[in-house]
Amino acid sequence: MLSGIKKCLSTHYAHFGGRSTRREWTAFLIFYLICLLVEYLLFHYFGKNLGFFSQPLSTRDMVIIGVIVLLNILLLIPFVAVSSRRCHDFAVHGAWAFLPPVLAIFSLVGSWVLRLGVGELPQWELWTVGAVSILAFISLLGLLIYGMLRKGTVGPNRFGADPLATAAAE
Predict the structure, then answer these.
(1) Is 50 inside a domain boundary?
(2) In the chain, how many domains are there?
(3) What does the alpha-carbon distance between residue 165 and residue 15 come to, in Å, rounded to a whole number?
(4) pLDDT per position as a tens digit, 101-145
(5) Is residue 158 part of a domain?
(6) Closest Cα partner for 80 from 158, 156, 22, 25?
């Protein structure tokens, strides 16, 4: 399990070609979700104790937020890469792995715009942000379930050799 995480963070950090096993993908997914939980808890700890939500941000606060966002981006790259390789394992184009992060980014930007208080927003804009957030969640959930349960293509496919056969040969 640790070898899959190490592989995703080192040799296959931003490697979108080839195929990935269910074990490698699931190991990195668990690691990624734990890291996101820690980042979330840190953000809310600092947010409540430093007053992110009630007063203007200081330079120190901005640095803390910047580090948290940077860590999130640095972990998002290998997650999308391993998800892309996982899609390749069952002969689906890896671009589908980009759908959940793109929708999540749109929903985050939309919610930030709403929180900035840019005036009275039309009802359709509120519904759009809500709909995109729901689509992000459903697409991520679908990808997670599909990726964990679906067995990869046996033998080589158009994206490369079978990773299980390659591991058995070594």
Answers:
(1) yes
(2) 1
(3) 20
(4) 777 777 667 666 665 655 565 666 666 666 776 777 777 777 777
(5) no
(6) 25
